[in-house]
Amino acid sequence: MHIDEIRDCICEYLGSIDGYSLWDDLLQETNPANYGYEVGSVLVQRNDIWVDVPNRTFTFKNLHLSFSARMAGTKGGYDQGFQFKLSGSGSFEFGEGSQGIRVAHIDLDEGQDLELYGESNSRVE
Question: Which end of the chain is more exposed for a tag (fewer CB within 10 A), N or C?
């Protein structure tokens, strides 16, 4: 598998329903805390991913994450949409027979918090 194919597979996986589960731990730690969330989309371009094939790791920049979070409690609360541009790293595994890629985990770069009402994101009405 060529490097560009690996990068394409990582892009596709991050934007797939299977890839959305990678955000669970991160989205549970928003500030302020939320009462549930739903990932809307994850978009990253191939040119914004760097891959270290021997170590099966990658870094990314300019990843666009949009999600809705349940705010102000489960009763009487409201759903608010948020968008972040993020950078970080992760690891991947090759599928059986080197067919396809499964991203095993992702981490955000240090100092990138999911501060819902901070300056580094935009709220979606």
Answer: C
Number of domains observed in the structure of the chain: 1
- Both tokens of 125, joined, read 């009405």
Tokens of 121: 């994101």
Task: For residue 123, list its beta bridge partners.
Answer: 82
| Cα atoms in the Cβ-side hemisphere of radius 13 Å centred on 70 | 10
Residue 108: HSE in the Cβ half-sphere, 13 Å Cα cutoff: 20
98 pLDDT higher than 70: no
Q: Please, which residues bridge with residue 105 across strands?
A: 91
Q: Could you list the residue range(s) of the whole structural domain that residue 96 is in?
A: 3-124
Neighbours of 47 (CB within 10 A): 11
Q: What is the dihedral of CA 67, 72, 75, 77, to 10 degrees?
A: -50
Q: Report the C-alpha dihedral over residues 104, 64, 4, 14, rounded to 10 degrees.
A: 30
